[in-house]
Structure formats: C-alpha cells, structure tokens
UniProtKB/TrEMBL annotation:
Domain Histidine kinase: 742-958
EC number annotated for this UniProt entry: 2.7.13.3
Signal peptide: none
Coiled-coil boundaries: 301-328
Spans annotated as Disordered: 954-977
Domain of life per record: Bacteria
PAS domain ranges (all copies): 318-390
Start and end residues of each PAC domain: 394-446, 677-731
Molecular-function annotations in GO: phosphorelay sensor kinase activity
The entry's keywords: Coiled coil, Kinase, Phosphoprotein, Transferase
Reaction equation(s) it catalyzes: ATP + protein L-histidine = ADP + protein N-phospho-L-histidine
Name of the protein this chain belongs to: histidine kinase
Amino acid sequence: MKFIADFIEANLDVLVRRFADAARRLESTQGLKASEVISTLPEYLHAVAAICRDGATPERLETRARLEEAHINLRLRVGATQEDATDEYTLLGRLIPQLWEDVQPERRPGAPGLQCLFQQLEEAMDHVVVLFSGYSLEDRQREKRFLRQLDAMAPRWLEPRADPHGPLRPLVELVVRALEAAGAELFLVDAGGRWMRPVAHTGHLVPPPGRSVDSQGPSFLGRVARSEEPLVLAQGRGLEDSAREGLHAPGWSTLLGLRLWPHGELMGVLCVGFAEARPVPPQTKRFLETLVEYLSGILDRALLMGQLREANARLEASETRYRLASQAAADTVWDWNLLTQEMTWSGETRRLLGFAPDETGPWASWWVERIHPEDRERVARGIHAAIQGTQARWQDEYRFLNRQGDVVRVLDTGVILRDATGRGVRMVGAMQDVTSRWEAENGHEQLLREARTARVQAVTELGQLHALLRQAPVALAILRGPAHVVALANDRICQLWGRPYEQVLERPVLEALPEVRGQGIRELLDGVLKTGTPYVGHELHVRLARSADGALEDAYFNVVYQPLQPAESGIDGILVVASEVTEAVRARQKAESLAGTLQASEERLRLAMDAADMGSWDIEPATGRATWDARFRAMLGLPAEGEVLLDEAMRFVFEEDRRQVEHAMAEAARPGGSGEYASEFRVRPPQGGPPVRWISGRGHVHFGPDGRPVRFVGTGLDVTEHKLAEEAASQRTEFEQYLVGIVSHDLRNPLSAIILGTTSLLRRDDLNERATKAVLRIQAAAERAVRMIRDLLDFTQARLGGGLPVHCQDLELGALVRQVVEEVQMTVPERVLQTSLPATALRGCWDPDRVTQVLTNLLGNALKYSPENTPVAVSLREAPGGVLLEVHNAGAPIAPDVLPRIFQPMQRGAPGMDPATRSVGLGLYIVRTIVQAHGGTIDVTSTHEAGTTFTVRLPHGDAKPASGARSHGTEQARPAS
C-alpha cells in the first residue's frame, strides 16, 4: 500500500489540476471560485495517503472525517445535491487510476493499495449520505433486519372469510418491537371499501367484536386513512368519543398512524401507541413508512393467494357437479378435437355402449367405425356438413354397435366451437340411448330379426375370409404359427413394408423385416397369439428401411392383429389389417407443437355450459312465421307460449339497435350473398333481470332454386356479463392511466418548490448545524420523490403521450458504454463488471442520455438479481444493420410465470429483497420504450445453466419511432437514477 501513498503525493498537483478542470464541467460547480471547487482536496489527499501508508489510526480517521465534513458543508451552502457531492468522489476515484497508465509496471499500485484507496472514497460517500439525509448506516442495517423478520413471518395465504388475527398478530408485534412502542392495532377495510374493522391487536388475544370505524369520518383513524403521510396524536387520553371511534388503546398516550395503500387503494390502517407523551422524530416516521409498505405487500399477496385457493375450490366443485350431472343424465359425453381428430369419452360410456372410458379408441374413426353400416355414410356426411358450414349445433339419430355387437339406437347432439375465421376447431356433444323409445315406436320383433340375420351373415363371411384375402382392397397379411411365418400377404401390405412379394412369403416376419428387431413387434405378436386377445393399435410406430439406400425412416400405421382359431378359419395364426397414417401423424404432431397444451377440463365445461345457454330460431322470411325455442324466448323476453311473428319479436329489441339488426338480416337475405347473419343487440329485460341484456345472434339464410330466401335459422347467446365486464375493464384502465398522469404532474410542482426552498435555505450563513441537517433531510426526501415521479412521468408519457422523446446525435457508442460501466463500478467496487468492446469505433445516431438510462437500468437490474460473488458482463458488437448491446448475469433464472410480462409496467422484483433496491416497477418497461423509440428491440433469455441475458438491438441510422414511441419531443430525457 506504500506505492499508492507515494503515487498520490508525487502526483498531487496534477490530480488537483485535473480534478478542477473536470469538476468545472459539472452543473453543481457553475459560478464557484477556483478555491471553492478545489476546497479541501489537497489536505484530503494527504490524509488518504497517510492512512494507506501507515494505517487507519483514530487520529488520521478523525482528520479525514473533518476534511470531508468541511467539503460537504461547503457544497451544502452552494446548493449542491447529495448526488452532486458523491459524483465528485466518484470523479476523484476515476482520475487517480488514469494517471498510472504510463507508469512502469513494477511501480504501479497493487490490489491492496487500490482496495485501501477505494475504501476511503466509499466511506466519504457514506459520510455524504449521512450528512444529507440524517439516515445512518446503523439505521439502514436495523431496517433490513426487521424487514427480513417480517418476510419470515409472512403467511402464505389468508382465507377471505377466515379470522386473520392469528397469522397477523405476530407481524403487528414485530412492528411494535421495531418502533419500541407500547402496542399497535391493525384495521382492514371491508368489501365495500369504507368501513374498517380491527383484525390484529397486541394487547389482547382476540379483538373485541363489533368494533368498526368509518374511513371517511372525523376520527383519528379516519383522518389517517385519508392521509398520505404518518399522523401523530400527541395526547391520546381524554379524547372525545368521535375522535376515539374504533380505538381500543388503554394506556396509550401518543398515537402514530399510517394507512396501508397498495396499488393506490385503501387496504387498512396501522395505529401504533406509545405509553408516554413524546414527540415522534422523522426517523421513526420514515421507519414506520418502510415497515407499513412492506406489510402492505405481504397482506396483498396473502389475500390474493387466499382468493386464488377459494376460486380453485369452486372450480373443483363445479367440475364435480358437471361429472355427477352427466352420470345422472345417463348420457355419454364426448369431446372431439377437429384439428387433430382426437376424441375423448366420459360419463356413462360403460352403461350405454359397454366400453369403459379407457377402452374407447382415441380417434374419431373409432366412433365412425362403430356406427351401423347402413347409417354410417349419412351420419358422417351430415356431421361434416355441419362442421364445414356455419351451424352451431348438430343432431342426428342413428344405430350404434356396442361392445357385444348389438345395435343401440342413440340420439347424438353436438355443439361446434369455431375460431375467428369461422373454422370449426372443437366439438362437444352428448349421446343418449333412445332404443326403448324407438322399439316402442317401431316394434321389438323386427329389431331382433335383423340382429339374427346380421349374425348369420357374419359367420358366413368369416368362412370366406381365406379366399378373399388376396383380393382385399386394404393391406392384409396372415402370420402362421408361433414363428409368425408370413403365409399370405397381398400387394398393399408389401408396399407398406417396402418389400417385393417373393421376399415376404413363407418367411418369419423378423426375417422379412430384420430392422424391426428390438422394437417390440415380436413381443406384441407373441402376446396376441398366447392370450387370444385382439390388438388394435392406432398410430403404431415402427422404423422401416423402405428407401433405396436402406436408411431407416419413421412410419406410423393403424393396425389390427386378430388371432385366428383353426376351428373357425383352419389357420392357427394372426390376421394383420393395416393402413399407413404417417403423413397424418406428422401433420398432427406439428399442429400439437404449435397449439400447446389446452386446458381440457375447463374448456369442456365451458363449451357444455355454452350449449345449455344457447337459444335458437327458425323463421320463414316470406311470411314472418317463426319457431323460437324456450331458451331464446326467455332471453328475448318473448311469451313462453303461443305463436310470435318476426315483426312482433322485433318490438322486444331496443329501438337504437333495431335498425342494425334489420340491416344485418337484409344483407343475409340478399340474393347472391353469402346468407351469413351476425349481430349483437340489446333487448328488453325480463321481469327481475338485469337492466340491459345483450344477445349475440348468429344465423344462416337458405335460398330456394329461384334464389329467394326460404328459411332463416340461427342461434342466440346471452353475452350480457361479457359486455358489462368489457365496459368495466375499459373504464378502470382509462381511469388508472389518467390518475397516474395527473398525480405525477401535480406532485412535481410542490416538490420543485420544496427543493428550491431548501436550496435557498442552505445558502444562508446563519444556519446552525442542526438546522442544516434538518433542511438536508427534507431536500433528500424531496429528491427521492422526484426520481420516483420521473419514472411515473416517463411511464405516463409512454402510455398516454405517444411514447418517450429521444434526441439523436452523432455518438461513439463504445466510449459511452465504457464511461457508464466505469461510473457504475465506482458505486459497487465490491462487484466485478466485465466489458467486451470492439477494437474499432461504433458510430451512429442515438440519444446519449436515453442510452445511458437503458444501460444503467439494465446494470442495476443485473447487480440486484445476481449473487455478489459473480461477475456482470457487458458486451457491445457490430450486427447487420446496427449494433448489439448485451448485459449478462448469473444466478437464479427469472420465473417462467414472470418472464412473459417482464417488460410490463408495475412489475417488481421478488419479495424479501433489500428495500433499498425496490422501485415502482417501471424500469424495464421504460427501457423497452426507449429502445423502441430508437427503432430497436430488446429480448431476454434466462435459464439455470446460462444465466440471464438482456439483448438490445439498435439500428445505426436516425431514430425510427416504433408503436407507442416517438423520436422527438419538448422535454429532454435524463438517465434513470
């Protein structure tokens, strides 16, 4: 450390001169004399050199502190801010290393010397903070300790209707210990947002029942609920009843209260009591503000988690009711994915069809194949016509073959869900057994005769199987005996296997297809032959060598392995029936990868309820005669019974909406048109219903041979709740943005007046030390508020004013990045900041202040969320059409649920962090807005292995405004503090 001391003293004059030249360019030194700029710098450098050379004795430390205090007081008198004073020590720490770049390596100071120098400068900046704010290091450490304890005691959730006293009382008691008070009581507002009720008290185990206080009343607690600052009641004893409303504070003389105000809404009030009459110092009020802000976050999270648990419980109960309802109705409920052709079955599948739900095929083809052959083509044609058209419902009655092969007559009804283009994407329906009803109408004996005839025909066809196998139009083969020798195969299966006919016949299947060894085919065939149980496989995956070069390729087959008995067919072996579905499977797999995971249970429930709430109509356009189902009559407010013509029904539509409904109907009925009808309108409310009901109508007009409309059918859905929710959400969003903009602008004026007033007071020579410290604390608090408002103004400008202004100029980006990293390094000397800059200059047109704001925010974010023993890396490089700026840090990755909204406003870091690093959650949102205003983009990747990297892409040329941003403005941007 001797080298650093000798170096400072040998270059003292050069250091002082360079400091004076550099400091004169700072705004805070404008108009000062040369002696006022230099101040006590020469003596201070001598004191630092002595400490580094001979050690930090009490005398040397006292000398250094006295020189620092003299310099800081001088800056206070000339109106400098806390940041101005710390910037001068940062400047000094940057000038000293610049001097030894030309010194011989053996004379350069080592790591211990540098550590000693930077430690003195850090302690000087801590001294600045203490003198400006009056908040010492001990105060900050004490605050961190109690915040950690609050976080450790925080309940994970609070049930909405449960008594919160038990989990909340320890938190209130901790606040009492932190403030060294006699007791405290916590009040929370009710669902109406006005009346506050006690939920936790340190003086008794259970708060006295029945107490409540009006948050808008004249009591002390009511005034606290309406105040942004902590309120003090110097004498709590002997108050009038109106002032003591809601309080249960025997023995408390002085009261201190502060409201809980998360998200700009009143949550409650915390009242702290002191046994003796005493003034409350500013440090205690500030400490209370920090504790209450943290407590508000804890309660807000716990209440939200409680509501989420309750909602999940309601959803589970709803699912249970849905399942029980389907069982009680004795219906089989099916869900058909029209994109992948997958179909799932639930409900009374076993009772109705003889199949357990896990025995039904996963594809729609399983259902089609079990439809009676005489009905199959008609049913398939009808349902596909409904899917490809515009219908919302499909219904048909047909015969279905159950597990025993018997005929079950079913009534099948389905609801079609369509995407924005009208394409059918999902269908949910219910199948009901109507056999008994049909037999009563058509005669039971006829049904039995048909069944017996079908069985006789099946036996006859089985005897002809061997003769017809070669001429079969599908891929067929017979594997004989336990060795699975290919006894018979037709051309189609040879094509699927990619083998000539002579290479397959009379050979075991594993010799004919040697590449399938180890793929489980042999074990599968052995199981079928041994158990006698058929195997039906959809999308059986096999790797075959079917190409000329012998390369293996993935192939998928729908295959049936049916065991054959000698008594029935004369063959002891297995019948193979196969068809290739490779391309269909690949297409479905691609669609699945794009579609993601669907919330199947919730979607099924929602569609089933949509089907129950939908009404329908059938109108003859020529006569106006109409048929309305019961649900649509209830929606529109029509009479429950009797004929209602179209003109009469239109009188139930609001007059303001009637014209657009009639216009939509006329367009649908126009000759040569599409016939499609869609309209949303309001109707007269039924008695006892909501003030306004919204109906969404969808329909189709059918035309006759002459082109005239002959039938108009459609469905109606009650969308009242959806409309009301959209309107409420829109009004709330608009109000929140308006409120943020107005509040941030209106607060700026009084804060500017406060800062101007404190600056004027500090210029006075008659202020004693105590008054100076008080004024400095006021000034520091106001400047903190100004920084928060600056972020809010940037946010408001971006959301309501069309974007943030940028002022581009010719800039060498590498030099700016190096300067910002060096300045940040001075503030965190214990961390390692690595830079990777190109050898050549990177020039372009950018706003230096805004780019500095981007890099400073990203570096602060990386330092905040990474372990202290890991480096933070900054890299800059050329890219096609622009430059890439990357900031990387190690540590835990960003949570998957946070990553998609990381650049959204009001997103904060994880709970439990150092409160000094917390913000209003606008940093990354403003970063993205600045980058977009330059015509660039920002991305983030975050994994356990690679860490977290923010990548900024900036074009070289003039700023190109993106959506929500602008490239010029009237207000000059400043870097984020």
